[in-house]
Every structure is written in structure tokens, then in C-alpha cells.
Amino acid sequence: MNTVLRFRNELGSERDLCNRGLSIKKRVSRKTECIAIKKVQNIVDKYPRINYTVHIFCSANEALTYDSVLVITESFNALLTDKPKLFRSNFRRGQMYNNGTKGIDCMKENPIVPWEHGSIIVRYFKKTITRGLTGNLMFSGTGFRRNFSVDISQMTINSQMSKVRLIKALYVFSTLADNVFHFHQK
């Protein structure tokens, strides 16, 4: 007989605990089984809201930097999975080639030419969807982040946080100084 205990975790979904993985060496009576279930249920009830999530304390800049590196990593992983031979022509015999020429041409007399794989890399950046520290990461066709909002808060004299501004995906903001923000609509 399988004993199943159900409880709600912090996210609200039900989780099953079964004795299927345990080897039972001797047969126990129904009364003993009920006592064991009640003991386990008491432990579960005693700690109903154990939070197993890891809290990472970092600044907004650190979280956004982490998310940007995550998007780059996810994009290149998807790109190299779909097209494993894409960069083969760029790296030959220990040398790097760019648009058919050896090395990176940085001479002023030569015009700046976009990298031959730049457009496909940007396309993979735009179609990357993943979960980062700042929430879901997804981008529009123009490369702007979609479906996100930012609360800018400040601490009052009484040590209470008050919301200064809510920024949705319609707005672009840039930092002018440590606590000064410039807002403009896209």
C-alpha cells in the first residue's frame, strides 16, 4: 500500500510524498502506519512555509549585468546548437579571419565593415527567451526588452521605502548620476 501525503508548498502547488522509494522490511499494522503518518503530518504542519528559494542580494546593475551575460550565453548556445559550423571559416590553424581577411582590420584608411555573422547573432539575441534575476527576459523585433517593469524607490527619513517611479517597457531610462534618472518615451 502506498502512503501519500499532500501539502501545499509556498508556490501553491501540491507535492506528493510517497513511500515507494523506501524498502519496508517488515509489515506494519494499519494503526502503526496511521501513527507514522500523523507524526510526519505534524512535522509538515510545523514548518508550512519553509522557503527553499535562494535569495541573492545584489544591486540593480549587478542583476542586469548578470542577465545580459545570461542572454548572450543562451543565444550563443542556441546558435551553436542550430549551426555548429558557423564560425569554422573564422578560426583556421590558430588564426582568426574576419570577412575573409586575416585578423581584425583596425586601420583608419579602411572603412568599418560589419562582421559577417553579426546579423545572425543579433537575430538569436532577439529570439532568446529565458528567466534571469530581474524576471523573464524576452525582446521585441527592434531589440528592446518586452514585458517588464521597474520600480524606482527611495528611502524616506522614517526609513520607509516609497515608490518614486514605475517604468514599463514603453519607457527608456538612463542614469545621469547616482540617484538622478532621465526619462524619455521611446
Automatic annotation (TrEMBL):
Any one GO CC term of the record: membrane
Receptor ligand binding region domain: residues covered: 63-156
Matches recorded under SUPFAM superfamilies: Periplasmic binding protein-like I
Keywords: Membrane, Receptor, Transmembrane, Transmembrane helix
Gene3D superfamilies documented for this protein: 3.40.50.2300
Pfam families reported in the protein's UniProt record: ANF_receptor
Key word Membrane present: yes
Localisation per UniProt entry: Membrane
Name of the protein described by the UniProt record: Glutamate receptor 1-like protein
